[in-house]
Amino acid sequence: MSKAVFPTWLRKRASHSPRVQELRQLLAGQELRTVCQDARCPNMGECFAGGTATFMILGDKCTRGCAFCAVTAGTPGPPDPGEPRRVARAAANLSLNHVVVTSVTRDDLPDGGAGHFAATVREIRNVLPGSTIEILTPDFGGSPEAVDQAAASGPDVYNHNLETVPRLYPRVRPGADYRRSLSLLARVKDKHPGMLTKSGLMVGLGEEPDELAGVLQDLREAGCDLLTIGQYLQPGPGQLPVQQLVEPDQYRQYQRQGLALGFREVAAGPFVRSSYRAHEMVVGHR
Length: 286
What we know:
Strand content: 5-15%
Oligomer: single chain
Largest sheet: 8 strands, mixed
């Protein structure tokens, strides 16, 4: 679908705030990346203008290359041992109240990068003890030890995205497994009941509303607390095309369904992304 046919509720003004360039320069100076830039998020200007960003660690190449994602697939280099401290320094320079850290998938590493996540959380805690920290991790290849290592570092929010309904996994997430991802969230909640767990879903990939309702039920049974639901927008010609544009009323229906099931917060809308206004979802639920 071309941008020209998008309805008014799927058009977003670009931000021209000087803060955007300031943040770009800070990240470049620290040799850091954000998923905002690499995944071509439509909220990047808004978030950068507000002085927030989701740091992406462990390099810029992913070992999987999901069909919806614009992050480059390939062979990554070794983890940079200085990266956790640089992330913490950048977060401190930005005086962030809520720090989100994610990564590419690193199936090439014995722990999937869990130790690097843990080190990053510890470094951020050292310099921003009053801030909340959210990690958005891959599935670590299903390793329970890796999940435990990342969670034991003490983030306030453990986020892992299911992304779509089980039927679409072979096409959308061929290297992932729906039940494995659910088990990850359930394990974190079981071992750390006071930690908030979170997941994110994309719509517009060909799912049916009743299928998505089933995913909401599965997430609640896994103890998931927070949920984001947003429109999939094709980031480039190499990714899956959009199958449908979900109307605003349907997002409101999904939000009502989620809250009725017991989610603490449900953010649902065309431009909602996993880390969009992440701090607002955490306030009051720590």
